[in-house]
Amino acid sequence: MLLRLSWIMGMAMAPAALAGEATSTTVDSVAPGDPSITGTSTLVRNNNGVSMTFEVVGLAPGNGYSAWFSVNGFPPPAAQAGRRIAGEDGTASFSGRLAEGDLLGNAATDDVLIVILNHRPKDPGNIRQQMTDVFTCGGPCPPVLHALHEAP
């Protein structure tokens, strides 16, 4: 099993390795309005763009959440990075990628902000629209957590 996992991880890392030297930063975050919501975000930069993961705890179980990229102070939300329904334990894991040219000018020098928005309790008949539209909350959906990855 360990050999198989190593092979899978090697395959997942291969595109980043081929694209040039990758660098990564990890940021721990606490929600400004609610210290029970915390998260850890990792951003990997290479010559082709950035990819991120964001592990969040303390969310409202069953609520819809989305992660968004914002670059160099461009008003968030700018480009969607992922969407999830928080589990019964209040956790959600996000991942996403942003290529150079898609809002991102230079992966090596751009500051990248990742923002988590709360889309409120899931609407079973309308989840896709609810999770991709930032105005499904009777106005802009409120941000609950963010992580700023400054350029190295």
Plain-language structure description:
The chain is 15% helix and 44% strand. By secondary structure, it is α+β, with helices and mostly antiparallel strands. The chain has one domain (21-149): Superoxide dismutase, copper/zinc binding domain (Immunoglobulin-like). It contains 2 helices and 8 strands, in the order H-E-E-E-E-E-E-E-H-E. It starts with a helix and ends with a strand. The strands form 2 sheets. The chain has a 4-stranded antiparallel β-sheet with strand order 1-2-3-6, with no helix packed on it. Mean pLDDT is 83; it is low at 1-19. It has helices at residues 2-18, 127-132, and strands at 23-30, 38-46, 49-57, 63-71, 79-85, 92-99, 112-121, 143-149. Strand 1 (23-30) and strand 2 (38-46) form a beta hairpin. It is globular and about 40 Å long.
What are the main properties of this structure?
152 residues; alpha+beta; Immunoglobulin-like; 8 strands; disordered N terminus
Shape category: globular
Q: Classify the beta-strand content into a percent band.
A: 35-45%
Rg over CA atoms, rounded to whole Å, is 16 Å
Major sheet: size, sense and barrel closure?
4 strands, antiparallel
Mean pLDDT: 83
Question: Under the CATH scheme, which architecture would be assigned?
Answer: Sandwich
Number of domains: 1
Low-confidence stretches: 1-19
Name of the top-level CATH class: Mainly Beta
CATH superfamily: Superoxide dismutase, copper/zinc binding domain
